[in-house]
Each structure stands twice: as C-alpha cells, then as structure tokens.
Structures
1.
Amino acid sequence: LAGTSLTGEARFAEVVTADTEESATQATDVRGQLELANGRFQLREIEMKTPQGVLQGELAADVAAEPLTYSLDLHGDALSTGVLLGIGDLRGLGTSTFKLQAAGEGADPARIAGGGSLTVGGGELPDHPALAQVEQLLGNVTLIGTGYEAFPVTFDIRSHRVNVAPCTLRAGPVALSLSGWVDFDGPLEMELTVLTPREGLKIKEIPAE
C-alpha cells in the first residue's frame, strides 16, 4: 500500500458497523472523495444516509502504520433526536444538530478517544415510559406534551465509554438534569435530577420491592 496511489469518487450502497447484530449501525448511499497515497487513506466530503438522518464528514487513516491509526469528523443537521438517543422516533421531539471528532488505532474500540456535542431543538416532551414514571412519582406534575427549550449536550469518548456531561432540559416550571455514561457493550449509568416548585407537590410513596 505504501507505493499505491488512487484518487476518485467512492460510493457504497450500504455500510454496517457492529460487534453484534443488535448493536448494528447502518448507513446507505455512502459517497465521498477518495485519495490513497503514501500509505495514507482519506475520504473527504463524505455524505451518508442513516436512520438518524444525513451525516457528513471526513475519514483519514494511516494504513501503513502498525497498528493502523485513523481519525473521524462527523456532523449532521435536522437529525432525529429519538433515534440518536436510542428511544425511537418519538413524536414531539425537536430535531438535533450533531458533531463528533474522534481518533483511534487498531481494531480495539477501547482505543477510540474524542468528543462532540448534540444540540436538541425545542419541542414537546414525548409520551415515554420514563417521563410517565416521573409524573406518577411527583403526583401533580405534567411533563408529557409540555413544551421544552432547546438545550445542548456535550460528551467525550474514552475507555470504551461515552461520558455525558451534566445537561439540563427545561419544560415549563420543571427542569430535568441528566448526566452519566454509556458503555460500548451496552451497560449504562445515568443520573436524573428533577427540579420543580414545591407548591402543590405531592410525592407518591415508592412501593417496596
């Protein structure tokens, strides 16, 4: 590869990346400007269709290095927030703007590091079991269907995890603060804090298991 040179447009009908079928990430109609020279591979002006929406970016790799090293820059606008968060394309959620910069080496996901942001556009809180549980617990607080303001979420990637920095969603008189992490293999730990006025608050008893 060190002595190979190649330029042109690259197109792929479908790209699937996953460790398991359940965690598959699919992109279709992937295209970009390809350049291969002196052991370095670059794919510029990438555009791909995903379940979240259209993503664009650049991919670079040193295929002559041992182990291989690579970097990735992705961004997208008007993306499905629910699909991005893994909760489905729920009605009411505003669309999102997504940015990601990451780099790694070899085939081990634990050696990927980077970070990015997700800016969620304003909308209405969807009918989701987690929000229904909060409503039930607080008694007189209505969340589902309540309008919320746009808010940013920042995250970093290290040690096989996506770490979500504290972020706050404001919907009427209620604020929901969220932070935590998601492991590449599936386990996650999230902390949700609900801030609401005391007036009229009726916290229901949590039944013992």
2.
Amino acid sequence: RLKPSHILLAFETCKQTEDAMLLSQLYLLLVSIYPQLSGSLKEFATPIIKDVLILRIEKNDPTLLELQIGEGYTHSRYNSEVGACAPRDEVDFTSLGRIIGANTHLEGVHVDNSLGVALNGAIPSAFFDGLRQNTSIHTLLLSECDVGQRSCFAILRAFCRSNSCLTELYLSDCGLGEGRIYVVAASLRNCTQIEEVNLPGNGIDHAIL
C-alpha cells in the first residue's frame, strides 16, 4: 500500500540526481497515479508534483517541451513533454521566471486567464525578466487572457522583443475585438521571426486584419 513516506523517499532520491530523465519518469509516475490516490495522499502529493516539475525545468530536462501556466491546466497523465504549474505568490513567480530564463529546451508556453489573480495582477518583474531571457521558446498561447490587463500584456511584451525567438502566437478568446488588436499589432512589430498568428474566438472583422 502506497504511503506518504514512499512518495517522499522517491522525491528525495531523485532530487539528489543530475539525471533529468529520472525526474521526468518520476513526474509521469506521480501524475498517472494521482487520480487514484485518496484525499489525504493527493494533498501530500500535490506540492511534490509541483517541486518535481520545477526541478525538471531547473535541470533543463530535454524531454520537457511545453509549460502550461495557470489554474485551468491539469497534469498530463500520458505525456511527459507537457508540464502544468500554477504559481500563486511572489516567490513562486520569481523562482519560475529565473529557471525559465536559463532553460534551453522549452519550446512553448501556454497561459490562461488565472495568471496572477491571487496577486491582483501584481506579478514580480523577475518573472517577466526570465521570459525575456529565454532563447528557446518559440510558441506562445494565451487563452482567455485580456491583453488590456497588466499581467497578460506584460507576457506578450516579454516575448515580442527584437531578439525574440517567437515564431507562433496564439491568442484564443482574448477579447481583441474592442480595439485591442492594435495593441497586439504594435507589439508584434519587434517580432522579426514571427511566422504564424492565430486569433480564434476574438470576433475580429477581417477588414481590420
């Protein structure tokens, strides 16, 4: 029978290794058994799953290619290439920004409309600094994010810079029909490598595009 001590032992063992693949396997194992855990075990395992994912980013796991940020995402039980996290305080955001900035294997970032809600949108600048420093992320997806809000606009600006590697931008249901499409267009002027922009669910008149 699985006990909290078993989960903790597995985590502490993997934490000491430099083998990112081992962390990847532990992450996939934990998220695959998570739905079957009892309530108390789920409560115990949740922060450990979060810490394992943070370690995968920090140790530059080559199998972790996409990062989903927000309360609306859940861990994929079958795909270790995708990780989901929900930073909630200044320490979480600062730490996440630092390790994303140094990571060289992440290719895509997905963000939902819960970003920074717990902080009333006052996300530490260190988080956005990390996004700007990253040189491997080329796909950005914002889902139901109001680009008129400070946090969402700051993410867009972080990736839409002159030295950005961004090639694909997806803005899904972001309320761009009220003139905010021009905010996006102005930001994209610096994205010299952009190849594809998708704007589903925004009710934009094609004449504007």
3.
Amino acid sequence: TRRDFRSKRTLTKRFGVSQLTSKGKLKIRTIDDFTFSGVNLATVSLEALHHNSVDDLLALASGIAHLGFDPVLLKGDFKGAYRACPVLGAHSVYADILVSNPLDDNRRYVCTQRALPFGAVASVYGWERLGAALTAVLHWIGLPVLRYVDDLFMAVPTELGELARSALERAITALGYTLAPDKTEGPTSCFTVLGVRLVIVDYLLTVM
C-alpha cells in the first residue's frame, strides 16, 4: 500500500494490449497507465512534434526520378526506442509501476522505471528530442532520412542503395542505438511504410 513507501510517490498500474504487427503476428504491448495515476495530467509540453509522412517520401522519390535516376526505397525501425532513453533521476519519484505476478498468486510488486515508460506523455517528447537529434546526424553524413516517431525511411538512387543501407546501420550503431533487424528493409522497389504499400513502377513511386 502507499503507507509502505518511505515517501509520497505516485503509483501507476500496468496492463497489456493485444496488437498485430505489420507482419500479422500477435504481440502483447505493455502500457503504463500514467493517465490513471495523474502523472500525465500534470505534464505540460511546450514543444511540437515534427514527423515526416508518406507524402514526404513520395516527394523525395519523385525528385530523384526527375534527376534521371531510378529510386529505391529503404526503411528501418529503432529497437526499443523508449528503452534507449533514461528517466531523469529527479523524475524517478513519478516512475513507480505497480505490477502483479500471476505465477505468485498475483502478488503485487512495485518497480521503478529507469527508461522512458510506454504510456507517459513525457516519453513521447523525450524520444522526439532524441529521434530528431539522431536524424540530424544522419542528415549531416548525407543520408536523406525521413522519420515518423521511431520509423526511418528514405529513397535514394538505385546505385547508392546498398551503400545507403550500410551507412545507415553503421551510423546508428556508432551512435549507440540499434535498428530492429526484422524491420529493416531495402534497397527495394516496394514496401509498406506507415500502413501504406508503396511500389516504384517506371521510375515513379505509387501508392497501392
């Protein structure tokens, strides 16, 4: 109970949500209900989220085609994006998660999140700042990367496809992060990004 704590701290409950992956597989995503605990209600952000869209990818591929090159597509997805961002030490008093163990008569335990939890408004903006910084570095080394939250995607001339993928993977690794191998695709003439199937036909990128 709250009386067992050495100081007044918020308790956030955790629950699971069933989801289908882009490959049609069922997975359970754990959600920490920071709205129920009141932490989200006490969170205010003065920042705006800046995400790229499928339209931006279409424009990039179109620009490559207009220069006389055949474009190819690449994409990647950060592995455990939120888990790559630590919670500020002073904020740990708001990161206590209440969980139960079904193998131990549903006995309840309290754990403190050391990385950004899924379900906190602040996590969205914490990752946004890191994601934007990583994307800026990728632009600096010459990769025309677009980003939507933790999804990276781009179009490059066919001749540079393999080099672009290698540079992307090596740069992310050098920066201390990881791309999910099963979600890294390309260079290819077709893939699904942000729920939209895209195909390159006769130098043009079209939506299927």
4.
Amino acid sequence: EEQMSAFVLRMRNITQNSVAINTAIINNSFSKGLQPACRNAQADLVVLGAHQNSSVGGLFGNKSIYAGKLIKEPLLLVPGHCRFDKINKIGLASDLSNGRGEGVHLLKRIAKALHATIHVLYAEVGGHTSDQQYREARGLVNIFGTDQIYHTISSKNVDDDVMDYLQKEQVQLLAVLSQKHGLLQRLFHFSHTGYFIRFSQIPVLVLQA
C-alpha cells in the first residue's frame, strides 16, 4: 500500500493533477488477475512498464507476451528508460496477412491524434509475397493514405533489420497486430515476435487485428 501511495503521488506530480487516478491492489497471480482488472476498470488501454530482465535477456519478459495473448484491450509496453515529449513516428511491423482489421483503423486514429507519420514495415519472410499480401498492401495504402512511408524488409535477419530501421529513422513507437489464435502468430514467425517484444528499446503497442 505504501508503494501504491508513492506511485500515485508521483503520477499526480507528473500529470499536475490533470488526470483522475483510481487504484486497486489485486491479491492474485498475474495470469488470473489481469483480465478481471481490465474488465472492472473498463480499460481502453492497458499499460505495462518494463525493466531489464536478466532471466530472459531483454526488457519485456514472458508476462508481456502472455498479456498480449490474454487481453482484448490495446496493450502498450513501455521500457522504463524511455524519455520523450512527443511521438511523431510510428512503425507498423507486418507481413500483410491481415492488414485491414480494426487494429489498423485504430492505429490510424492514434496516429492522427498524435500528428504522427506511420512507417509501414513489410517483412517479406521467405522471400515471397502472395497475391493475398499484395491485396492487403493495397488495402493499407487505401486506409493510411499515400502520404505515409512504406518500406519492405527482405532478408534472413528480419528482426534485426526491423530494429535497425526503427533506430535509424528514430521511430518512437512500434505497433504490432495480434491474431485471435496467438500473439502475432502470423505476423512474422513466433520467434521474431518474442524478439520484438523482449528486446524493443521503444514502446510497443499491441493491437487486436
């Protein structure tokens, strides 16, 4: 309770008391407590902080991956070291297997509210683009518009190349889309998904596809 009180005080100082803060302490495991807490709070967005986790070798651990699978609300994973005033570049990592769902439209609204440019990173896994992916690519252009940035990454090291692009272009937020049958099961191979979530140095926004 003391830690919670101290946290609320810090949040009020940061927001200058401009945001209403309600708190609840849940005496349950992470897996059992997360869904009810989100439901009771009628959350529009769930935020998880992260710090260096030596057991998994990255910033975001297994709880973050589990949360992305478990909840239907948009999930924002924020590394503890992040310091920024404005987000004006958002990266969307996709293999175009499902590019026209509600998550894409929500991302468009978020980018508009932030006055941010979307960098669509198409990961050509396996060196082949199907007719369905071409159709999804055209759908993304129709949704986001031609004034956004579209970039194809085709290599054996997709995860490293995505991270290199984000760093080079100084992208401040990485968005990924989750599928009903598992977190990004079709957006990259699952091993790539774990890489992005665990080792991202910028906030990761997980949206329902």
